[in-house]
Amino acid sequence: MTFAERLASGPVLLLDGGMGSMLFARGLGAGESPEHWTLARGSEVVAIHRAYVEAGSDAVQTNSFGAHPLRLAAAGLAGRASEVARVSAAHARASAARYVIGDIGPTGEYLPPVGLGDAEEFRRGFTELGRAFAAAGVDALHVETMSDLAEARSALAALLEAAPGIPVCVSLTFERRRRGFFTVMGDRLEEALPSLRDAGAAAVGANCTLASADFLALATTARSSCAGPLVFQPNAGAPRLEAGQAVYDQTPEEFAADVADIAAILGATGGAGAVGGCCGTDPRFIAALAAELARRGLR
Amino acid sequence: MPSPLPPPPIPPIAPIVPIAAMRDAVVAGDAARARELAVALVASGTDLIAAVEDGFGAGIRRVGELWEEGEYFLPELVQGAEAMKAAMSEILPALALRRGGSLARGRVVLGTVKGDLHDIGKGLVGVLLAAHGFEVHDLGHDVPVERFLAKAREIDADIVAASALLTTTMPEQRRLAEAIAASDLARKPKVLIGGAPTSPGWAASFGATHAENALRAVAAAEALLP
After folding, report:
1. CATH number of A3-295
2. How confident is the model at residue B182 (pLDDT cuts 50, 70, 90)?
3. Cβ B170–A178 below 8 Å, yes or no?
């Protein structure tokens, strides 16, 4: 069953959890980009993917969040975007996950009027990543943690063209404001998600910024305003710093209970979408979520 | 024969610039209009400080309120600040000329700490500080402690402001504060920090001041001035 068929007909798909926090736990230094480990310490990355597969993830997402050429250049890895995409896909494949999703994060720059980003340069970089991931044979692509709908749309359009036939999921990152859920650019959830779906996204949703309890409210709003598969990856609560280390107070069980509620909102039948975790979540969270989904008959 | 009475003072002939128009230009994020009003204001010879405070200044405060209320978002906030900056770029030189000196309210070295590429919040702080009359030296992102220190020394900074958006880069803020405290600078700049994972308690643990967001950073910087 292809990823698209599974997304359209199966029950909720279980994604993986955080990658960055896992890399830090294995010694990624401050100031070192995660993509550097894709290029230099692949066995560590494969081990993280494997841990998620063992925890129950149906799909793992490549360690390539910062692989847009603009972002790579800022991290001292200029000109290596295609290589990061290809190598990261091989690492994800080596985990024996059922599906491999090419992960694509933002450029790290902002379009006018907020920043000086060049839309054409944005598009070129996304096109390069789309071609490289398609050549590497990924099952799907996931544009995530986008705080600007315009950038997300630019990525989606470029990827649909560069990687024909490969489903593209898109997740924005929302803040909870008095009047609802908005990106920092002011894109309103109820309008942003349907617009991405209409533009050809296989699944649309949200990740990062908010913890699972806020995501429950977010998912309710999203389900009532947008048809089709949805994808949600909340953070594990808000981090606090203890002796120089990021500490997340939420337990895997609390996270799993909230995200299983989200999965129930998505629907128990086909075309529900996918859930997983973002910053601060690790294989324990995904294992707890897998158990909770099974217990409730949602997966 | 008694000398004649001195003639009454001649009122300014330039048109009065409406305060509300200045405020509205900033709230609307219209930099061209704000600059045009500022030029007219300087030419009118009225009290610039009062006009800035009640006009453009009221505008940027309103923009801040609208942002905190969730009505305005990043684009509106940035455009409001740019309009304020455009107006101040006309007014500050005129004020300095009238006063016969520099009018910068304080000199700030600004940057995102080493290992951290998050630029947007920090950039916003720079725009807003400049809009409020600070002389801002923005070193960009991924700035090592040594560069903060060198620039602070070079410009005799009042404030060093450091942003960190990652729990993994926050410790750089502490390193910066400790390096400033341990430095041989005759006048040690105050340290202002911010960024999503930071907190007042974190700042206090190394004698720095915390700002929750870009607007609060302006108020905090003003409070830190001698």
Report:
1. 3.20.20.330
2. very high
3. no
Q: Are residues B124 and B70 in the same domain?
A: no
Claim to verify: residue B113 and residue B73 sit in the same structural domain: no
Nearest to A239 among B73, B119, B167 (CB): B167
Tell me the domain boundaries of chain A.
3-295
Q: How many CB atoms lie within 10 A of CB A56?
A: 18
Which residue in A108, A177, A241 is closest to B202 by CB distance? A241
CATH number at residue B112: 3.40.50.280
Q: What is the pLDDT of residues A171-197, one digit of tens each?
A: 999 999 888 999 989 999 999 999 999
Flag whether the pTM goes above 0.80: yes
Q: H/E/C letters for each residue in chain A?
A: CCHHHHHHHCCCEECCCCCHHHHHHCCCCCCCCHHHHHHHCHHHHHHHHHHHHHHCCCEEECCCCCCCHHHHHHCCCCCCHHHHHHHHHHHHHHCCCCEEEEEECCCCCCCCCCCCCCHHHHHHHHHHHHHHHHHCCCCEEEEEEECCHHHHHHHHHHHHHHCCCCCEEEEECCEEECCEEECCCCCEHHHHHHHHHHCCCCEEEEEEEEEHHHHHHHHHHHHHHCCCCEEEEEECCCEEEECCEEEECCCHHHHHHHHHHHHHHHCCCCCCEEECCCCCCCHHHHHHHHHHHHHCCCC
**In-domain check, residue B3:** no
B interface test, pick of A33, A110, A247 with most B CB neighbours within 10 Å: A110
d(CA B171, CA B184): 22
Residue B57 confidence (pLDDT): 86
Residue of B82, B114, B123 with shortest CB distance to A31:
B114
Q: Which residues of B touch A179 (CB under 8 A)?
A: 70-71
Same domain, B128 and B197: yes
Contact criterion met (CB < 8 Å) for B74 and A108: no
CB contacts of B29 in chain A (<8 Å) are: 113
What is the count of structural domains for chain B? Answer: 2
Q: Where in the sequence is the domain holding B161, given as residue range(s)?
A: 107-224
For residue A233, give how far its alpha carbon lies from the nearest alpha carbon of chain B (Å).
Answer: 19
State the ipTM, two decimals: 0.81
- Tokens standing for B25? 């230009």
Separation between Cα atoms, residue B181 and residue B152, nearest integer Å: 13
The partner residue sitting opposite B167, judged by closest CB among A31, A183, A241, is A241
Q: Searching chain B, which residue's CA lies closest to the CA of residue A113? A: B75
- Nearest chain A residue (CA) to B72: A186
> Is residue B12 assigned to a domain?
no
